[in-house]
Write a structure and sequence with these properties.
With 462 residues, the chain is α+β, with helices and mostly antiparallel strands. It is 66% helix and 6% strand. The protein folds into 4 domains: 111 residues; 99 residues; 59 residues; 121 residues.
Length: 462
């Protein structure tokens, strides 16, 4: 009796929901394998005939092919949906990008317009760009500039009066059909615009510094352009001749302030030179008075010794008296010869660093007094002395050294600032060539206080 074989359970049959969207082929192969296993099992049991088994296999194959076709269609549909979604997202992003680009371009345009209306007036930037000042309208002194400014401001007052031509507007303007009211409105608005322009011009003139001239002119020009833009409806604008007059005022004011600064600096330098000269003269007078007093003392002593007949003491005092008289002669020579004095070479490692020296001149009897004055509380450390050389033509030696080191000047504007980018050894070579001989020269700066301060800082840090 053959064993009855039940048909495959529904749970084992492939269902639409059990087959994944991707991987249908794999699932089909698994189903075929199951069929083959079932067929082998049936063949062993002999439950079906060959024809029946073939029919069963064909049926299963047809169902598998149907499922495969159905899954392929679903896959294509899903891919199509994904492509459509991607294209829609791409289109949306493109539209957003175009909108952002348009907004950026608009903001860039607005920023450009704003920058055109803004004048850079940061003093740090202006100072960094400041060069040697060039006078726009050279005059001999500040008095001439003051007179020129006074005359110019009279012309400015004349143009600002009614019908003076400082501001212009549309005389054909009407209000409520009335030409008179229109002229009054244009006149009132013109006064208001002119007042704003003059306020800006006066403010720029009051705060004028030489290095601010270009930015001040630029600012005033932009103010005039802004007034023309705001008054475009009634054609209100600052006239060209009046604007040129106010620009001329700014240029003269800058020249005047620069000339004043130069004159004050020259006056300060001259006062310093005179003070130094007076100190030297006082020292010479004091030294001559001391020597004259000592000379009289020696003369009195000599007279007493001669009366006693002490020839040996007389000879000794006469020698000393000769030295005193020579010293008096030297002092008189120094007082009469303004070119005689000491050329000094000094440096300040702690204050200015390595490779900077000062080459100067003093007519003091004691040149180190001048060096000590230079190293007062205005600098953190005292100066080191490399050389002090006396010469009958100290002025000429100093001038020649300055000429040789001209390209190494630290301050190329104020020639009284006698500092140079050079080492003491380099200055020594020039001084030897110019002076001919040197009693002594120290090439290495001692900088004692600086080195002690460095050591103390290291100890505190540690």
């Amino acid at each position: 009796m053959s064993e009855e074989i039940a048909p495959p359970d529904a749970a084992q049959s492939p269902a639409d929901g059990d087959i994944p969207l991707f991987g249908a082929r794999k699932k089909a192969r698994e189903l075929v394998k199951e069929v083959e296993e079932l067929r082998g099992h049936l063949d062993r049991l002999g439950a079906f005939s060959t024809i029946e088994l073939e029919q069963q296999r064909n049926g299963l194959a047809t169902e598998i092919e149907h499922q495969r076709t159905h899954l392929e269609e679903e896959r294509k549909e899903a891919e199509l949906q994904l492509i459509q979604q991607a294209e829609a997202a791409q289109t949306s992003l493109r539209q957003e990008l175009e909108a952002a680009t348009r907004e950026r371009d608009e903001l860039t345009r607005q920023l450009t317009e704003l920058r055109q209306e803004v004048v850079v007036t940061e003093e740090t930037a202006l100072l960094q760009e400041a060069g040697v000042y060039e006078y726009r309208h050279p005059l001999s002194d500040s008095v001439e500039y003051k007179d020129a400014l006074k005359a110019l401001r009279e012309r400015i007052k004349e143009m600002t009066r009614a019908e003076g031509g400082a501001v212009r507007g549309n005389t054909d303007w009407t209000v409520n059909g009335s030409a008179a009211q229109g002229r009054k409105m244009v006149r009132d608005y013109s006064k208001l615009m002119l007042r704003a322009y003059n306020a800006e011009a006066d403010n720029l003139a009051r705060g004028m510094k030489a290095y601010k001239l270009e930015s001040a002119i630029d600012r005033l020009t932009r103010v005039a352009a802004t007034i023309a833009r705001l008054g475009r409806t009634m054609d209100i604008h600052i006239s060209g001749p009046y604007h040129e007059l106010r620009v001329y005022e700014l240029e003269l004011t800058a020249d005047y302030r620069q000339k004043q600064a130069e004159e004050k600096e020259k006056e300060r330098e001259e006062r310093e030179r005179l003070r130094e000269e007076q100190r030297a003269q006082k020292e010479l007078e004091k030294e001559r008075t001391r020597l004259e007093k000592e000379r009289k003392h020696y003369l009195n002593s000599l007279e007493a010794l001669r009366a006693k007949g002490d020839t040996e003491a007389v000879a000794r005092l006469e020698t000393e008296l000769g030295e005193i008289e020579k010293a008096i002669t030297d002092v008189d020579y120094r007082a009469a010869n303004v070119r005689a004095g000491y050329v000094y070479v000094i440096s300040n490692l702690g204050s200015f660093g390595d490779g900077i020296v000062k080459v100067g001149l003093t007519r003091r009897l004691e040149p180190l007094d001048r060096v000590r004055e230079l190293g007062d509380a205005s600098v953190p450390f005292r100066f080191d002395v490399h050389a002090i050389h006396f010469s009958d033509d100290a002025v000429g030696i100093e001038a020649e050294l300055h000429r040789r080191l001209a390209d190494r000047r630290v301050n190329k504007v104020n020639m009284r600032r006698e500092f140079f980018y050079a080492t003491p050894a380099e200055v020594k070579e020039h001084l030897l060539e110019v002076a001919g001989d040197l009693l002594s020269f120290e090439e290495m700066p001692e900088a004692l206080e600086f080195h002690q301060s460095q050591t103390a800082s290291g100890a505190v840090t540690t």
